[in-house]
Amino acid sequence: MDQWKRETRSGNALFEQGDYVMAEQHYLSACHLADIFLMPGADPEGGVAALVVSYQNLAELYRAQGQHPQAMSALQAAHARLSHVLSAPGLCHAHQQALLRGSGQVRMDIMNTVQWLGVSRQRTYRPTPARHAATRVHH
């Protein structure tokens, strides 16, 4: 967990400095390390929290650069990973509960991102008036 914390702190510092390329490398490394923490027998709360935070940081980095599809992909990857681990047989109750909480949190982030993108597009989208409305074909 110490290496994950170092990667996360380094990524955060680089993000704050505007060095997005290097921050991304540290965040991706943190995601990889956090994935290892999801293994059965590991601290379920800490492992799930590390994974969620790692992918949230990565998504925020992409949003800051206007790369909204990549931000959504990062959140979807976190949700897929949590769902995959949750489907494993023989998980203890504590592990299942931690995974469910983390999955719910990521789902909320996904919904907020979708909502934000919809509002953002509504603000910038200006439909052009239909000039030939009479010739429009309806199916």
Which properties best describe this structure?
139 residues; 5 helices; 76% helix; 0% strand
Fold and architecture overview:
- The chain has 139 residues and is mainly alpha-helical.
- The chain is 76% helix and 0% strand.
- Helix 1 packs antiparallel against helix 2 (20-36).
- Mean pLDDT is 83; it is low at 123-139.
Euclidean distance between termini CA atoms = 58 Å
Low-confidence stretches: 123-139
> Cα-atom Rg, whole angstroms?
19 Å
Strand content is under 5%
The major pleated sheet works out as: none
Mean pLDDT: 83
Classify the secondary structure makeup into a structural class. mainly alpha
Query: Could you give the count of β-strands?
Result: 0
Please state the overall shape, judged from the principal axes of the Cα atoms: flat
Helix fraction, binned, reads over 70%
Write down the secondary-structure element order.
HHHHH
Could you outline the blueprint of secondary structure elements for this entry?
Layout: H1 2-17, H2 20-36, H3 44-64, H4 68-86, H5 93-124
Helix pairs in contact: 1-2, 1-3, 2-3, 3-4, 3-5, 4-5
